[in-house]
Amino acid sequence: MSETAQRRGRGRRPAGEVREGVLRAAADLLLSEGIKAVTFDRVASAAGSSKMTLYKWWPSAGALAAEAYFAHSEHQLEFPDTGDIRADLTAQLRSFVRLLTHEGERTREGTGSVLAGLIGVAQTDPELSAAFSEHYSAPRRALAVAAFEKARDRGQLRAGIDLGILVDQLWGACYNRLLIPDAPLTEDYAVALVNNALDGAAAR
Amino acid sequence: MSETAQRRGRGRRPAGEVREGVLRAAADLLLSEGIKAVTFDRVASAAGSSKMTLYKWWPSAGALAAEAYFAHSEHQLEFPDTGDIRADLTAQLRSFVRLLTHEGERTREGTGSVLAGLIGVAQTDPELSAAFSEHYSAPRRALAVAAFEKARDRGQLRAGIDLGILVDQLWGACYNRLLIPDAPLTEDYAVALVNNALDGAAAR
DNA sequence: TCACTATGTGTACTGGCTGTCCATTTGAAG
DNA sequence: CTTCAAATGGACAGCCAGTACACATAGTGA
Protein backbone atom coordinates (compact mmCIF):
# COMPACT_ATOMS: atom_id res chain seq x y z
CA MET A 1 0.00 0.00 0.00
CA SER A 2 1.96 2.92 1.43
CA GLU A 3 -0.24 5.21 -0.67
CA THR A 4 2.49 7.50 -1.90
CA ALA A 5 0.97 10.94 -1.73
CA GLN A 6 1.12 11.69 -5.41
CA ARG A 7 1.46 15.42 -5.20
CA ARG A 8 -0.07 17.19 -8.16
CA GLY A 9 1.00 20.63 -7.13
CA ARG A 10 -1.50 23.23 -6.11
CA GLY A 11 -4.84 24.07 -7.57
CA ARG A 12 -8.23 22.57 -7.81
CA ARG A 13 -8.75 18.88 -8.41
CA PRO A 14 -11.85 16.86 -9.27
CA ALA A 15 -13.96 16.60 -6.17
CA GLY A 16 -14.80 12.93 -6.58
CA GLU A 17 -11.17 12.02 -7.02
CA VAL A 18 -10.19 13.88 -3.87
CA ARG A 19 -12.97 12.36 -1.77
CA GLU A 20 -12.08 8.89 -2.99
CA GLY A 21 -8.43 9.32 -2.10
CA VAL A 22 -9.20 10.73 1.32
CA LEU A 23 -11.63 7.95 2.18
CA ARG A 24 -9.20 5.27 1.06
CA ALA A 25 -6.37 6.80 3.05
CA ALA A 26 -8.61 7.04 6.11
CA ALA A 27 -9.70 3.43 5.76
CA ASP A 28 -6.08 2.32 5.42
CA LEU A 29 -5.10 4.14 8.59
CA LEU A 30 -8.15 2.90 10.45
CA LEU A 31 -7.64 -0.76 9.60
CA SER A 32 -3.89 -0.83 10.03
CA GLU A 33 -3.30 1.42 13.03
CA GLY A 34 -6.67 1.85 14.66
CA ILE A 35 -8.97 4.76 15.28
CA LYS A 36 -6.36 6.83 17.10
CA ALA A 37 -4.34 7.07 13.87
CA VAL A 38 -7.23 8.63 11.96
CA THR A 39 -6.45 12.31 12.48
CA PHE A 40 -7.03 15.09 9.99
CA ASP A 41 -3.31 15.71 9.88
CA ARG A 42 -2.31 12.17 9.03
CA VAL A 43 -5.16 11.45 6.64
CA ALA A 44 -4.47 14.67 4.74
CA SER A 45 -0.80 13.95 4.32
CA ALA A 46 -1.42 10.28 3.45
CA ALA A 47 -3.99 11.22 0.81
CA GLY A 48 -1.90 14.09 -0.52
CA SER A 49 -4.68 16.50 0.24
CA SER A 50 -4.94 19.64 2.26
CA LYS A 51 -6.34 19.73 5.76
CA MET A 52 -8.64 22.53 4.70
CA THR A 53 -10.44 20.21 2.34
CA LEU A 54 -11.08 17.65 5.05
CA TYR A 55 -12.39 20.26 7.44
CA LYS A 56 -14.78 21.39 4.75
CA TRP A 57 -16.28 17.97 4.14
CA TRP A 58 -16.21 16.19 7.46
CA PRO A 59 -17.19 17.62 10.84
CA SER A 60 -14.69 15.55 12.81
CA ALA A 61 -11.96 13.00 12.34
CA GLY A 62 -14.26 10.41 13.88
CA ALA A 63 -16.98 11.08 11.34
CA LEU A 64 -14.43 10.69 8.56
CA ALA A 65 -13.27 7.39 10.04
CA ALA A 66 -16.84 6.15 10.23
CA GLU A 67 -17.62 7.03 6.64
CA ALA A 68 -14.39 5.44 5.48
CA TYR A 69 -15.19 2.29 7.39
CA PHE A 70 -18.73 1.93 6.09
CA ALA A 71 -17.70 2.81 2.53
CA HIS A 72 -14.78 0.41 2.32
CA SER A 73 -16.20 -2.63 4.01
CA GLU A 74 -19.33 -4.34 2.89
CA HIS A 75 -21.20 -5.45 5.97
CA GLN A 76 -24.32 -6.67 4.32
CA LEU A 77 -24.83 -9.71 6.53
CA GLU A 78 -28.14 -10.53 4.84
CA PHE A 79 -30.70 -11.87 7.24
CA PRO A 80 -31.47 -15.48 6.30
CA ASP A 81 -35.17 -16.27 6.25
CA THR A 82 -35.78 -19.97 6.25
CA GLY A 83 -38.96 -19.72 8.29
CA ASP A 84 -37.25 -21.04 11.43
CA ILE A 85 -36.41 -18.06 13.59
CA ARG A 86 -34.13 -20.04 15.89
CA ALA A 87 -32.03 -21.35 13.02
CA ASP A 88 -31.96 -17.97 11.30
CA LEU A 89 -30.93 -16.15 14.45
CA THR A 90 -28.25 -18.68 15.23
CA ALA A 91 -26.76 -18.39 11.76
CA GLN A 92 -26.93 -14.63 11.82
CA LEU A 93 -25.40 -14.18 15.25
CA ARG A 94 -22.68 -16.75 14.58
CA SER A 95 -21.53 -14.97 11.44
CA PHE A 96 -21.67 -11.68 13.31
CA VAL A 97 -19.38 -13.00 16.03
CA ARG A 98 -17.11 -14.56 13.42
CA LEU A 99 -16.82 -11.23 11.66
CA LEU A 100 -15.87 -9.55 14.92
CA THR A 101 -13.36 -12.07 16.14
CA HIS A 102 -11.83 -13.84 13.15
CA GLU A 103 -9.42 -12.09 10.88
CA GLY A 104 -10.62 -10.52 7.68
CA GLU A 105 -8.74 -9.44 4.58
CA ARG A 106 -7.02 -6.49 6.14
CA THR A 107 -7.32 -6.87 9.88
CA ARG A 108 -5.56 -9.40 12.03
CA GLU A 109 -7.91 -9.82 14.93
CA GLY A 110 -11.19 -9.28 13.15
CA THR A 111 -13.31 -6.23 12.65
CA GLY A 112 -14.12 -6.22 16.35
CA SER A 113 -11.35 -3.92 17.47
CA VAL A 114 -12.11 -1.41 14.72
CA LEU A 115 -15.79 -1.42 15.57
CA ALA A 116 -15.02 -1.12 19.26
CA GLY A 117 -12.79 1.85 18.55
CA LEU A 118 -15.51 3.59 16.57
CA ILE A 119 -18.08 3.02 19.30
CA GLY A 120 -15.56 4.18 21.86
CA VAL A 121 -14.79 7.47 20.15
CA ALA A 122 -18.50 7.93 19.45
CA GLN A 123 -19.00 8.40 23.21
CA THR A 124 -17.21 11.74 23.01
CA ASP A 125 -17.78 12.64 19.34
CA PRO A 126 -21.42 13.51 18.61
CA GLU A 127 -20.79 13.67 14.86
CA LEU A 128 -19.38 10.17 14.83
CA SER A 129 -22.21 9.01 17.03
CA ALA A 130 -24.79 10.34 14.59
CA ALA A 131 -23.03 8.85 11.58
CA PHE A 132 -22.71 5.50 13.32
CA SER A 133 -26.35 5.39 14.23
CA GLU A 134 -27.53 6.47 10.81
CA HIS A 135 -25.33 4.23 8.69
CA TYR A 136 -24.85 1.26 10.92
CA SER A 137 -26.67 0.58 14.15
CA ALA A 138 -30.14 1.89 13.37
CA PRO A 139 -30.52 0.06 10.02
CA ARG A 140 -29.29 -3.14 11.60
CA ARG A 141 -31.69 -2.83 14.49
CA ALA A 142 -34.54 -2.24 12.05
CA LEU A 143 -33.52 -5.28 10.02
CA ALA A 144 -33.55 -7.49 13.10
CA VAL A 145 -36.87 -6.16 14.31
CA ALA A 146 -38.38 -6.82 10.89
CA ALA A 147 -37.22 -10.41 11.02
CA PHE A 148 -38.71 -10.75 14.50
CA GLU A 149 -42.02 -9.37 13.32
CA LYS A 150 -42.23 -11.97 10.61
CA ALA A 151 -41.43 -14.68 13.12
CA ARG A 152 -44.07 -13.36 15.48
CA ASP A 153 -46.62 -13.39 12.67
CA ARG A 154 -45.68 -17.00 12.06
CA GLY A 155 -46.46 -17.72 15.68
CA GLN A 156 -42.88 -18.48 16.69
CA LEU A 157 -42.60 -15.64 19.17
CA ARG A 158 -44.93 -14.64 21.96
CA ALA A 159 -47.38 -11.95 20.98
CA GLY A 160 -46.83 -9.50 23.81
CA ILE A 161 -43.07 -9.37 23.59
CA ASP A 162 -41.07 -6.20 23.00
CA LEU A 163 -38.97 -6.96 19.94
CA GLY A 164 -36.51 -4.17 20.58
CA ILE A 165 -35.58 -5.80 23.85
CA LEU A 166 -34.83 -9.02 22.05
CA VAL A 167 -32.37 -7.20 19.83
CA ASP A 168 -30.53 -5.89 22.87
CA GLN A 169 -30.45 -9.30 24.48
CA LEU A 170 -28.78 -10.81 21.43
CA TRP A 171 -26.61 -8.24 19.70
CA GLY A 172 -26.30 -6.02 22.74
CA ALA A 173 -24.94 -8.95 24.70
CA CYS A 174 -22.30 -9.45 22.01
CA TYR A 175 -21.37 -5.77 22.01
CA ASN A 176 -21.09 -6.00 25.76
CA ARG A 177 -18.45 -8.72 25.52
CA LEU A 178 -16.73 -6.77 22.76
CA LEU A 179 -16.56 -3.50 24.67
CA ILE A 180 -16.22 -4.79 28.23
CA PRO A 181 -14.19 -7.93 27.70
CA ASP A 182 -14.56 -9.71 31.02
CA ALA A 183 -15.84 -12.83 29.30
CA PRO A 184 -14.95 -14.34 25.92
CA LEU A 185 -16.88 -13.71 22.71
CA THR A 186 -17.18 -16.97 20.79
CA GLU A 187 -19.52 -18.63 18.32
CA ASP A 188 -20.64 -21.07 20.99
CA TYR A 189 -21.60 -18.08 23.06
CA ALA A 190 -23.73 -16.79 20.21
CA VAL A 191 -25.56 -20.10 19.95
CA ALA A 192 -26.24 -20.26 23.67
CA LEU A 193 -27.39 -16.66 23.57
CA VAL A 194 -30.12 -17.44 21.06
CA ASN A 195 -31.37 -20.43 23.00
CA ASN A 196 -31.38 -18.50 26.24
CA ALA A 197 -33.26 -15.58 24.76
CA LEU A 198 -35.87 -17.82 23.20
CA ASP A 199 -36.33 -20.37 25.98
CA GLY A 200 -35.72 -18.19 29.02
CA ALA A 201 -33.69 -18.93 32.11
CA ALA A 202 -36.45 -19.67 34.60
CA ALA A 203 -37.06 -23.24 35.61
CA ARG A 204 -40.18 -24.68 34.06
CA MET B 1 -15.82 24.55 43.91
CA SER B 2 -13.28 26.18 41.60
CA GLU B 3 -10.58 24.50 43.64
CA THR B 4 -8.17 27.37 43.77
CA ALA B 5 -4.77 25.85 43.25
CA GLN B 6 -3.36 26.70 46.65
CA ARG B 7 0.28 26.91 45.70
CA ARG B 8 2.59 26.05 48.49
CA GLY B 9 5.72 26.89 46.60
CA ARG B 10 8.22 24.26 45.64
CA GLY B 11 9.39 21.27 47.53
CA ARG B 12 8.00 18.01 48.65
CA ARG B 13 4.50 17.73 50.05
CA PRO B 14 2.82 14.95 51.99
CA ALA B 15 2.10 12.14 49.57
CA GLY B 16 -1.38 11.41 50.80
CA GLU B 17 -2.35 15.04 50.66
CA VAL B 18 -1.15 15.31 47.06
CA ARG B 19 -2.93 12.15 45.95
CA GLU B 20 -6.12 13.28 47.59
CA GLY B 21 -6.03 16.65 45.90
CA VAL B 22 -5.27 15.18 42.51
CA LEU B 23 -8.06 12.64 42.74
CA ARG B 24 -10.56 15.23 43.83
CA ALA B 25 -9.57 17.59 41.05
CA ALA B 26 -9.82 14.75 38.52
CA ALA B 27 -13.26 13.77 39.80
CA ASP B 28 -14.41 17.38 39.59
CA LEU B 29 -13.28 17.68 36.00
CA LEU B 30 -14.74 14.31 35.09
CA LEU B 31 -18.17 15.00 36.54
CA SER B 32 -18.46 18.57 35.36
CA GLU B 33 -16.87 18.52 31.91
CA GLY B 34 -16.62 14.87 30.98
CA ILE B 35 -13.79 12.49 30.29
CA LYS B 36 -12.23 14.65 27.60
CA ALA B 37 -11.43 17.30 30.19
CA VAL B 38 -9.43 14.87 32.31
CA THR B 39 -5.95 15.52 30.93
CA PHE B 40 -2.73 15.46 32.90
CA ASP B 41 -2.25 19.12 32.12
CA ARG B 42 -5.59 20.28 33.41
CA VAL B 43 -5.73 17.99 36.43
CA ALA B 44 -2.25 19.05 37.48
CA SER B 45 -3.03 22.74 37.27
CA ALA B 46 -6.44 22.32 38.94
CA ALA B 47 -4.92 20.36 41.82
CA GLY B 48 -1.94 22.70 42.10
CA SER B 49 0.38 19.79 41.49
CA SER B 50 3.09 19.08 38.99
CA LYS B 51 2.53 16.96 35.90
CA MET B 52 5.60 14.94 36.82
CA THR B 53 3.85 13.72 39.93
CA LEU B 54 0.84 12.52 37.96
CA TYR B 55 3.02 10.72 35.43
CA LYS B 56 4.73 8.97 38.27
CA TRP B 57 1.54 7.66 39.86
CA TRP B 58 -0.84 7.01 36.98
CA PRO B 59 -0.05 5.33 33.67
CA SER B 60 -2.53 7.38 31.67
CA ALA B 61 -5.05 10.16 32.08
CA GLY B 62 -7.79 7.58 31.56
CA ALA B 63 -6.53 5.46 34.43
CA LEU B 64 -6.48 8.53 36.64
CA ALA B 65 -10.05 9.35 35.65
CA ALA B 66 -11.16 5.83 36.45
CA GLU B 67 -9.56 5.82 39.88
CA ALA B 68 -11.04 9.23 40.62
CA TYR B 69 -14.47 8.03 39.58
CA PHE B 70 -14.40 4.85 41.62
CA ALA B 71 -12.92 6.61 44.64
CA HIS B 72 -15.35 9.51 44.74
CA SER B 73 -18.60 7.72 44.00
CA GLU B 74 -19.92 4.91 46.07
CA HIS B 75 -21.52 2.44 43.73
CA GLN B 76 -22.29 -0.28 46.16
CA LEU B 77 -25.67 -1.24 44.81
CA GLU B 78 -25.98 -4.14 47.18
CA PHE B 79 -27.66 -7.13 45.64
CA PRO B 80 -30.98 -7.70 47.41
CA ASP B 81 -31.62 -11.31 48.35
CA THR B 82 -35.24 -11.91 49.20
CA GLY B 83 -35.27 -15.42 47.80
CA ASP B 84 -37.25 -14.39 44.74
CA ILE B 85 -34.77 -13.99 41.89
CA ARG B 86 -37.24 -12.22 39.65
CA ALA B 87 -38.03 -9.57 42.22
CA ASP B 88 -34.40 -9.19 43.21
CA LEU B 89 -33.28 -8.80 39.62
CA THR B 90 -36.00 -6.33 38.84
CA ALA B 91 -35.11 -4.16 41.81
CA GLN B 92 -31.42 -4.36 41.06
CA LEU B 93 -31.70 -3.55 37.37
CA ARG B 94 -34.19 -0.75 37.99
CA SER B 95 -31.90 1.01 40.41
CA PHE B 96 -29.02 0.50 37.99
CA VAL B 97 -30.94 2.20 35.20
CA ARG B 98 -32.04 4.94 37.57
CA LEU B 99 -28.44 5.59 38.53
CA LEU B 100 -27.47 5.86 34.87
CA THR B 101 -30.29 8.07 33.70
CA HIS B 102 -31.48 10.17 36.62
CA GLU B 103 -29.44 12.98 37.98
CA GLY B 104 -27.25 12.46 40.99
CA GLU B 105 -25.64 14.95 43.35
CA ARG B 106 -23.12 16.30 40.91
CA THR B 107 -24.20 15.21 37.46
CA ARG B 108 -27.15 16.53 35.52
CA GLU B 109 -28.04 13.63 33.31
CA GLY B 110 -27.05 10.80 35.58
CA THR B 111 -23.88 8.81 35.85
CA GLY B 112 -24.57 7.26 32.48
CA SER B 113 -22.62 9.73 30.39
CA VAL B 114 -19.61 9.56 32.66
CA LEU B 115 -19.63 5.77 32.60
CA ALA B 116 -20.10 5.78 28.84
CA GLY B 117 -17.14 8.10 28.48
CA LEU B 118 -14.95 5.85 30.58
CA ILE B 119 -15.93 2.77 28.58
CA GLY B 120 -15.40 4.72 25.38
CA VAL B 121 -11.88 5.81 26.24
CA ALA B 122 -11.13 2.32 27.54
CA GLN B 123 -11.38 1.08 23.94
CA THR B 124 -8.14 2.87 23.13
CA ASP B 125 -6.52 3.05 26.58
CA PRO B 126 -5.38 -0.37 27.83
CA GLU B 127 -4.52 1.00 31.26
CA LEU B 128 -8.00 2.38 31.73
CA SER B 129 -9.45 -0.83 30.39
CA ALA B 130 -7.57 -2.86 32.96
CA ALA B 131 -8.51 -0.53 35.80
CA PHE B 132 -12.14 -0.55 34.75
CA SER B 133 -12.28 -4.32 34.62
CA GLU B 134 -10.50 -4.78 37.91
CA HIS B 135 -12.37 -2.20 39.96
CA TYR B 136 -15.75 -2.17 38.32
CA SER B 137 -16.96 -4.61 35.71
CA ALA B 138 -15.41 -7.85 36.89
CA PRO B 139 -16.51 -7.53 40.53
CA ARG B 140 -20.01 -6.64 39.44
CA ARG B 141 -20.20 -9.58 37.09
CA ALA B 142 -19.03 -11.87 39.84
CA LEU B 143 -21.64 -10.48 42.21
CA ALA B 144 -24.41 -11.12 39.70
CA VAL B 145 -23.21 -14.62 38.92
CA ALA B 146 -23.12 -15.41 42.63
CA ALA B 147 -26.73 -14.29 42.99
CA PHE B 148 -27.68 -16.44 40.02
CA GLU B 149 -25.97 -19.44 41.53
CA LYS B 150 -27.99 -19.10 44.69
CA ALA B 151 -31.17 -18.82 42.64
CA ARG B 152 -30.24 -21.88 40.63
CA ASP B 153 -29.62 -23.81 43.83
CA ARG B 154 -33.06 -22.75 44.97
CA GLY B 155 -34.47 -24.25 41.79
CA GLN B 156 -35.54 -20.95 40.28
CA LEU B 157 -33.25 -21.18 37.27
CA ARG B 158 -32.73 -24.05 34.88
CA ALA B 159 -29.80 -26.25 35.75
CA GLY B 160 -27.99 -26.26 32.43
CA ILE B 161 -27.95 -22.55 31.90
CA ASP B 162 -24.80 -20.46 31.44
CA LEU B 163 -25.03 -17.80 34.11
CA GLY B 164 -22.52 -15.54 32.43
CA ILE B 165 -24.79 -15.27 29.44
CA LEU B 166 -27.63 -14.16 31.67
CA VAL B 167 -25.49 -11.32 32.95
CA ASP B 168 -24.87 -10.11 29.40
CA GLN B 169 -28.53 -10.35 28.53
CA LEU B 170 -29.50 -8.12 31.43
CA TRP B 171 -26.72 -5.64 32.16
CA GLY B 172 -25.14 -5.96 28.70
CA ALA B 173 -28.46 -5.01 27.16
CA CYS B 174 -28.51 -1.88 29.32
CA TYR B 175 -24.96 -0.98 28.40
CA ASN B 176 -25.93 -1.46 24.79
CA ARG B 177 -28.63 1.18 25.04
CA LEU B 178 -26.26 3.41 26.96
CA LEU B 179 -23.42 3.19 24.44
CA ILE B 180 -25.42 2.80 21.22
CA PRO B 181 -28.47 4.91 21.96
CA ASP B 182 -30.86 3.88 19.19
CA ALA B 183 -33.50 3.00 21.74
CA PRO B 184 -34.35 4.54 25.10
CA LEU B 185 -33.05 3.31 28.44
CA THR B 186 -35.85 3.40 30.99
CA GLU B 187 -36.91 1.61 34.14
CA ASP B 188 -39.77 -0.04 32.30
CA TYR B 189 -37.21 -1.39 29.90
CA ALA B 190 -35.30 -2.91 32.81
CA VAL B 191 -38.41 -4.64 34.08
CA ALA B 192 -39.28 -6.06 30.67
CA LEU B 193 -35.69 -7.17 30.27
CA VAL B 194 -35.85 -9.33 33.37
CA ASN B 195 -39.12 -10.95 32.36
CA ASN B 196 -37.87 -11.61 28.87
CA ALA B 197 -34.64 -13.15 30.07
CA LEU B 198 -36.44 -15.39 32.54
CA ASP B 199 -39.45 -16.41 30.47
CA GLY B 200 -37.96 -16.42 26.98
CA ALA B 201 -39.36 -15.04 23.77
CA ALA B 202 -40.45 -18.24 22.09
CA ALA B 203 -44.15 -19.05 21.96
CA ARG B 204 -45.18 -21.77 24.34
C1' DT C 1 17.77 17.43 67.54
C1' DC C 2 19.81 17.25 62.96
C1' DA C 3 21.45 15.81 58.55
C1' DC C 4 20.20 13.05 54.72
C1' DT C 5 17.50 11.47 51.04
C1' DA C 6 13.45 10.45 48.67
C1' DT C 7 10.06 12.91 46.51
C1' DG C 8 7.21 16.78 44.78
C1' DT C 9 7.71 21.29 42.33
C1' DG C 10 8.74 24.93 38.69
C1' DT C 11 10.30 25.49 34.34
C1' DA C 12 11.29 24.44 29.83
C1' DC C 13 11.65 21.76 26.14
C1' DT C 14 10.12 18.58 21.58
C1' DG C 15 6.61 16.87 18.90
C1' DG C 16 1.81 15.83 17.42
C1' DC C 17 -2.86 17.33 16.76
C1' DT C 18 -6.64 20.87 16.28
C1' DG C 19 -8.67 24.60 14.07
C1' DT C 20 -8.05 28.57 11.30
C1' DC C 21 -5.81 31.82 8.38
C1' DC C 22 -3.88 33.41 3.69
C1' DA C 23 -2.22 33.68 -1.17
C1' DT C 24 -1.73 30.86 -5.04
C1' DT C 25 -3.04 27.78 -8.60
C1' DT C 26 -5.99 25.35 -11.51
C1' DG C 27 -10.43 22.59 -12.99
C1' DA C 28 -14.74 23.52 -14.78
C1' DA C 29 -18.65 26.39 -16.18
C1' DG C 30 -20.23 30.30 -18.95
C1' DC D 1 -11.48 32.59 -23.55
C1' DT D 2 -12.86 34.46 -19.24
C1' DT D 3 -14.38 33.96 -14.81
C1' DC D 4 -15.48 31.63 -10.71
C1' DA D 5 -15.16 27.97 -7.52
C1' DA D 6 -12.37 25.00 -5.23
C1' DA D 7 -8.12 22.69 -3.75
C1' DT D 8 -3.36 23.46 -2.49
C1' DG D 9 0.98 24.73 0.33
C1' DG D 10 2.29 27.10 4.14
C1' DA D 11 1.98 29.23 8.43
C1' DC D 12 0.06 30.08 12.84
C1' DA D 13 -1.59 29.84 18.00
C1' DG D 14 -3.25 26.75 21.40
C1' DC D 15 -3.64 22.41 23.84
C1' DC D 16 -1.74 18.19 25.13
C1' DA D 17 1.66 14.13 25.81
C1' DG D 18 5.86 13.02 27.50
C1' DT D 19 10.54 14.03 29.15
C1' DA D 20 14.41 16.51 31.43
C1' DC D 21 16.85 19.16 34.96
C1' DA D 22 17.60 21.86 39.05
C1' DC D 23 15.73 23.04 43.44
C1' DA D 24 13.14 22.81 47.80
C1' DT D 25 11.30 20.25 51.48
C1' DA D 26 8.85 16.29 54.17
C1' DG D 27 9.84 12.14 56.35
C1' DT D 28 13.39 9.28 58.10
C1' DG D 29 17.17 7.37 60.71
C1' DA D 30 21.01 8.63 63.60
TrEMBL record, chains A, B:
It comes from the Bacteria. Keywords: DNA-binding, Transcription, Transcription regulation. Residues 39-58 bind DNA. Pfam families: TetR_C_11, TetR_N. The keyword DNA-binding applies. Gene3D superfamilies: Homeodomain-like, Tetracycline Repressor, domain 2. The keyword DNA-binding applies. InterPro entries: Homeodomain-like_sf, HTH-type_TetR-like_transc_reg, HTH_TetR, Tet_transcr_reg_TetR-rel_C_sf, TetR_C. Residues 16-76 form the HTH tetR-type domain. PANTHER family: HTH-TYPE TRANSCRIPTIONAL REGULATOR RUTR (PTHR30055), TETR-FAMILY TRANSCRIPTIONAL REGULATOR (PTHR30055:SF148). This is TetR family transcriptional regulator. It comes from Winogradskya humida.
